[in-house]
Specification:
The strands form two sheets. Strands 3-4-2-5-6-1-7 form a seven-stranded parallel β-sheet. Helix 3 packs parallel to helix 4 and helix 7 packs across helix 9. It is α/β, with parallel strands linked by helices. The radius of gyration is 31 Å and the shape is globular. The protein has 25 helices and 13 strands. It has two domains: about 200 residues, Rossmann fold (3-Layer(aba) Sandwich), CATH 3.40.50.300; about 210 residues, P-loop containing nucleotide triphosphate hydrolases (Rossmann fold), CATH 3.40.50.300.
Length: about 550
């Protein structure tokens, strides 16, 4: 947290009252550093970890700079529907009467068109739906003065960067632009260089590394793929978190995991991109309100979720990139709260996680899958604590009468059977060999360096050798999956094409030119076909 306050930064009285109502008095570092440059109209290039308060970081100066005119003044682009809706809700919490047009996919067009026709000053949406409204002529960006690109690195990963460039090209030159991204890969840096004018750069992450939460405990577990869901059941029964967000790699897997958890007595729901927007909104509402304890989701569906007080994030397997793992883990440990990131990984993935820990400064605390005996013991302790706290005079008198009529041991055992009749004690999973309880370093160099080296790209290896990196191959498809026409491919150089040598083309030589003689006939040039098969074999 910063030592200053929102009042010292210069927030208006109305916004100070709204912030105080939500319990916000001291700005977070990213908010303290962006407020004044944003209020002065400067462009901002902000690299900050997820969950660091980025919405208020651009929302506060944006709200101060809005005028009373009824036309789109600010455009906020987000990679997912949930994040766009979350941003809109955050701004509404500060200014409840502010007209905001939410342009996201999966919902009907008429309400969005009505909000635009009424002249909403703030437009929040995903790139795809924003482009749809531009093509329909229902969204006019000619008077937009502020643009926000939220989680720009995720828009790059999802293939939206070309759509973002198309949208920005339609806006008149000179708008104030805020670009927020947890990482700054080369395409994002090029986008910033093209559309940002002398930006104030704020870097709250380590240079060259992914920003890592200090408030998140990383506790991976090594378990074979086919036993990971059962291991998750045991871990949830032992820890009993108030809620948990569980990530899977595929949509089908999210449905299977939710079903297996429900069958094991841990009711869960799944969330992925194929669900209707109304269903996704309902499930998210139940999860945020505490009516749903466990939510199983894919990366795209859960991108940008902001759940207050979420204590646990679970990874069933790990994503292909460390940045995605950090974004997943960032759903917990937000706004200074403590959280846990639990990863269920196989032996190969554990080695990858070790490499990430060395690269990104992750502190891994390996743990084992609890046994049913350990789960029953933990349940008994919690039950005993609850019983002692709930005892009163009337219950103590009733207990004394029951003890006179029955053996104490049998009486307690019967009561436990009634209380725990519907409670599961988990699965009895085969224990892993001692050498696989925790990943080890296989070579002397790894033991010395503290882990395997992270994999480097071809360009990084070439740069280390002082060579020129080979250009990336030209993609034959667009981000939407459609194939590019031949004219587009011919306009771009082929990275692996061998240059033709200059000079006249060599003439094609005939058989006679190459051999110096001419065969008497066609059969003479192919003796294996002219001669009988047996005669040819004898020769």
């Amino acid at each position: 947290m910063s030592d200053t306050t929102f009042a010292a930064l210069g927030c208006s009285e109305a916004l100070l009252a709204a912030l105080a109502k939500r319990g916000f008095e001291t700005p977070m570092p990213v908010q303290a550093q962006t407020f004044r440059p944003g209020l002065e109209g400067r462009d901002l290039l902000v690299q900050s970890r997820t969950g660091s308060g980025k919405t208020l970081a651009f929302g506060l100066p944006l709200l101060h700079r809005l005028s009373d005119e009824r036309h789109p003044q600010a455009l906020i682009l987000a990679p997912t529907r949930e994040l766009a809706q979350q941003v809109g809700a955050e701004l509404h919490s500060l200014v409840p009467k502010l007209p905001i047009a939410s342009l996201v996919g999966g919902v009907a067009y008429p309400p969005q068109m009505k909000a635009l026709s009424m002249g909403a000053p703030v437009v929040v949406g995903t790139p795809g739906r924003v482009m749809d409204h531009m093509e329909r002529g229902t969204l006019d960006l000619s008077q937009v003065r502020m643009i926000v690109l939220d989680e720009c690195d995720e828009m790059l990963n999802m293939g939206f960067l070309e759509d973002v460039e198309t949208i920005l090209a339609k806006v008149p030159k000179g708008p104030q632009t805020y670009l927020f991204s947890a990482t700054l890969p080369v395409p994002i840096a090029k986008l910033a260089g093209r559309f940002l004018n002398d930006p104030v750069r704020i870097q709250l992450a380590e240079a060259g590394e992914t920003a890592v939460h200090a408030d998140i405990a990383h506790t991976p577990v090594i378990i074979p793929d086919h036993q990971q869901v059962r291991a998750l059941v045991n871990l949830l029964l032992l820890d009993e978190p108030s809620s948990a967000l569980i990530f899977t790699k595929t949509k089908a897997q999210s449905e299977e995991v939710a079903e297996e958890l429900t069958v094991a007595g841990l009711p869960a729901a799944f969330l992925h991109g194929d669900l209707a927007q109304a269903t996704r909104t309902r499930i998210l509402g139940q999860f945020k309100d505490g009516k749903l304890r466990y939510l199983v989701a894919t990366d795209v569906a859960a991108r940008g979720l902001d759940i207050e007080g979420l204590p646990l994030v679970v990874h069933i397997g790990i994503p292909t990139q460390m940045e995605n793992y950090v974004h997943r883990s960032g759903r917990t440990g937000r706004a200074g709260a403590k959280g846990t990131s639990l990863a269920l990984v196989n032996w190969k993935e554990s080695r990858i996680l070790l490499a990430w820990s060395r690269r990104g400064g992750l502190k891994l605390d390996w743990r084992a899958v609890p046994t049913p005996a350990e789960i029953r013991e933990a349940q008994a302790r919690k039950l005993l604590d609850g019983i002692q706290g709930a005892a009163n005079a009337a219950l103590l008198h009733q207990a004394a009468q029951m003890l006179k009529a029955a053996d104490p041991t049998h009486l307690v055992a019967g009561l436990l059977g009634l209380v725990q009749a519907d409670r599961s004690s988990g699965f009895d999973l085969p224990s892993e060999p001692e050498r696989k309880a925790k990943p080890r370093f296989d070579t002397a160099r790894e033991r010395k360096d503290g882990g395997p080296r992270p994999q480097r790209s071809y360009a990084e290896r070439a740069a280390a050798r002082g060579e020129t990196a080979r250009p990336e191959p030209v993609s034959k498809t667009r981000p939407d999956g459609s194939f590019k026409p031949r004219r587009e491919l011919e306009e771009r150089p082929r990275p692996y094409a061998k240059p033709r040598s200059e000079g006249p083309e060599r003439p094609r030589r005939t058989w006679e030119d190459r051999s110096g003689t001419k065969p008497a006939s066609k059969e003479a040039s192919r003796p294996w076909k002219a001669a009988p098969a047996k005669a040819w074999k004898k020769k």
